[in-house]
Design a protein that fits this description.
Length: about 525
């Protein structure tokens, strides 16, 4: 398709229509026609740069994690955008770590720019300046070090997308059979909470090979939209779950690689696909019986069935980890997020059963809802929506208890507790203190022979140990100690979803950590008042 014959707006509109038809076809003929149209779709129209469409260029300052992914997946297609670099100071600091001692005098002479030095250093080598730079930082043992230096350099890149399979045009996860729509888009279920609790037919865990393939689809779906998320950047290819929710729609959930897991929360991202086409994504922090999460539907698919899809995402998490409470932070519906504010996202969550946690805001929402019902079609003012977006919203399933809630602010308090626990461990060297806390927790819960554990499990154990210590496990009965032994092994095990399910069942750990946080908050308030 020639970009010279059509305007940028018409090309973009046609591309979006084909993407939608490929994801949500009303017939197999339409699906095939959309696939053919997209396979031929390419434009070099500069006005369509930064759209992710085949044939265009994309400009962005990706993190080290996405840069590494690009270097592996699209070698030769990404270059450093030298014209967009105003200050080379941080880049020079990165390059200095790559110098051979014999390079020093020339590099520091002032006679050569960073671009000129890289061109000289890679002379005769295939690939781009970006490929050469990333090749120098392959030492897995030093990834954290390189990531800090690279991210500090804030390096602008240009990706010549061309006919890449990772373009917005061609990025699809292969499915066995395309499913056409035999009716209209599915609406929000009448009884949302019952739908969330309705058992799934199955949740399949993919093979590692298929897991890698789906992670690539997820990474690309964000990269071409100038986005990225920790959940995909560090997804574990051995822990990718896919649930079929009908009409060709599937929800994929990704566990994190063991080394990248958080000390307490279990963090798991998700990707929504329709006939293999990525249509939306999000992340979820799973802790005890609650999940803090939100949804993002890609622009091309916002005329689809967003409410239904979001309910299915919650259904999958409920089935996977046993959560009974879903939490949406203000950013998801307008707090410091103008796009969500103007879209009225608050009402998207409200109509699904989410409610503000503050009584005053809950009362305001009810009053505003009555106004909207009295005048159908009337939109809430931005001023009102800002007020409504001033606190979290919760969706609470039947059977959930208020005592199951671990307040968001306690994540900070529990971190302060962990610092206190480490400071009291008896060693001024933090690493030694952490090891001592882990040894004490092991003794308190009756755990032996930790030294022979795999490295990932020992590291995860040391990360979570200060939180467990704060909950005073020595006072627990034998059954609770046995449960904790399972959690401590699972935290760094093959599948973090196992740990999430176990945490949801450990009442004494939840109660102990809640009580410790309350004591800490009380003590801090007392100190501030003195």
């Amino acid at each position: 398709m020639s970009g010279k014959r059509l305007t940028a707006a018409s090309l973009r509109s046609r591309h979006a229509a084909l993407c939608f038809q490929r994801a949500f076809p009303v017939s197999r003929d339409q699906s095939r026609a959309a696939a053919r149209g997209l396979s031929d779709f390419a434009t070099e129209l500069k006005k369509l740069d930064d759209t992710g469409i085949s044939g265009t260029r994309l400009y962005y300052r990706f993190s080290f994690d996405v840069a590494r992914w690009l270097a592996r997946k699209v070698p030769g297609d990404v270059s450093i955008d030298w014209a967009d670099i105003e200050d080379e100071t941080r880049l020079e600091e990165l390059l200095q770590q790559l110098l051979h001692p014999a390079d020093d005098e020339y590099f520091d002479s002032g006679y050569v720019s960073s671009q000129e030095w890289i061109d000289l250093a890679r002379s005769g080598r295939a690939g781009t300046d970006f490929d050469w730079l990333m090749a120098q930082m392959q030492d897995v043992r030093a990834q954290s070090y390189w990531a800090q230096l690279y991210d500090a350099a804030d390096l602008p890149l240009v990706w010549n997308i061309g006919s890449s399979l990772y373009s917005k045009t061609r990025n699809v996860f292969p499915v066995k059979e395309t499913q056409a729509r035999d009716g209209a888009m599915r609406r929000r279920p009448r009884h949302v909470k019952k739908e969330i609790q309705r058992p799934l037919m199955s949740i399949d865990k993919l093979s590692k090979r298929r897991g890698v393939q789906l992670i690539d689809v997820a990474m690309a779906s964000l990269a071409v939209r100038h986005r990225e998320t920790y959940h995909f950047n560090h997804a574990n290819p051995a822990e990718v779950y896919v649930a079929d929710v009908g009409h060709g729609v599937a929800v994929a959930v990704f566990g994190l690689s063991p080394a990248k897991r958080f000390p307490l929360e279990c963090t798991m991202g998700f990707l929504i696909m329709s006939n293999g086409v990525p249509v939306g994504y999000g992340g979820a922090s799973v802790l005890f019986r609650q999940v803090n999460t939100g949804i993002n539907i890609f622009d091309e698919y916002r005329g689809s069935e967003a409410s239904f899809l979001w309910v299915q995402v919650m259904r999958v998490y409920h089935a996977l980890v046993g959560c009974t409470r879903f939490i949406a932070n203000p950013y998801q519906f307008g707090g410091d997020n103008d796009e969500a504010l103007q879209s009225g996202a608050f009402w998207f969550y409200y109509h699904l059963g989410y409610r503000p946690v503050l009584p005053g805001i809950r009362q305001l929402a009810r009053a505003e809802l009555n106004k909207r019902r009295a005048k159908p079609g009337q939109r809430s003012s931005l001023r009102t929506l800002r007020k409504l977006a001033s606190c979290d919203m919760h969706l609470v399933l039947p059977g959930a208890r208020s005592s199951d809630l671990f307040a968001e602010e306690w994540l900070i308090t529990s971190s302060r507790l962990a610092t206190t626990v480490l400071s009291q461990a008896g060693s001024v060297i933090r690493r030694e203190a952490a090891a001592e806390v882990a040894r004490q927790v092991a003794r308190d819960v009756g755990m032996r022979q930790v030294d022979h554990w795999p490295a990932a499990q020992k590291q995860a154990f040391e990360k979570i140990a200060p939180f467990v210590a704060a909950a005073r496990p020595a006072d627990w009965p034998a059954t609770a100690k046995k449960q904790m032994r399972g959690i401590l092994r699972a935290k760094g095990g093959a599948f973090e979803a196992d740990c999430a399910r176990m945490l949801a069942q450990h009442d004494l750990f939840l109660q102990g950590l809640r009580d410790a946080c309350r004591r800490q908050d009380k003590q801090l308030t007392k100190t501030l008042l003195q």
